[in-house]
Amino acid sequence: MEITTDQIKALRDKTGVSVMQCRKALTEAGGDSEKALVLLKKRGAEAAAKKSGRTLGAGAVASYIHPGATVGALVLLSSETDFVSRNPEFQALARDIAMHVAAMKPEFRSVADVPADARAKATEVFAKEVEGKPAAMREKILEGKLNAYFGERALLEQPFVKNQDETIRALIERAVQKFGERIEVADFTRFAA
Fold this sequence. Notes:
- There is one protein chain.
- The protein is of the alpha+beta class.
- The protein folds into three domains: about 5-50, Orthogonal Bundle (Helicase, Ruva Protein, domain 3); about 60-110 and about 155-190, Tetrahydropterin Synthase, Chain A, CATH 3.30.479; about 115-150, no CATH class.
- It has helices spanning about 5-15, 20-30, 35-50, 80-85, 90-105, 115-130, 135-150, 170-180; strands spanning about 60-65, 70-80, 160, 165, 185-190.
- β3 and β4 form a beta hairpin.
- The longest helix has 18 residues, at about 35-50.
């Protein structure tokens, strides 16, 4: 099957990934744009994993103030080079994440960043809920409840406020694939009056 430039353009507009990567994904998917989209998402996660050991040396601080000036947020989005951090698309990503922080009130960057005392308190509460369950299942149910509870409060696990089908982690993975550098939310703060 021949891949048309319209198909490539549509996929590129949807993902922001390079023309060559879009063409390769469409070819691999036999022209099916939905399968190609899944392939690109998978490759984005793989690219992010490969680049996870690289040093972050630059970044951008973005702010968002909600109309009415009662809620605002600051986000430090880090990258490897200032070439990427000065890119308008990178800065727009940082601003989108700041808007998300203002709207969704994340408490932690990721589930791995949850302090031990907060995890212990939540474990205590959820342990009471699983008391009547079979012993073999109790640990799995408890872990699932903890992951769901903290996943709602962890920035990287939350569904993106502008697109509920994509998490903040997936948004960043797509940016890693697009820019070819490691990108990470280094810090964030939310303010409310």
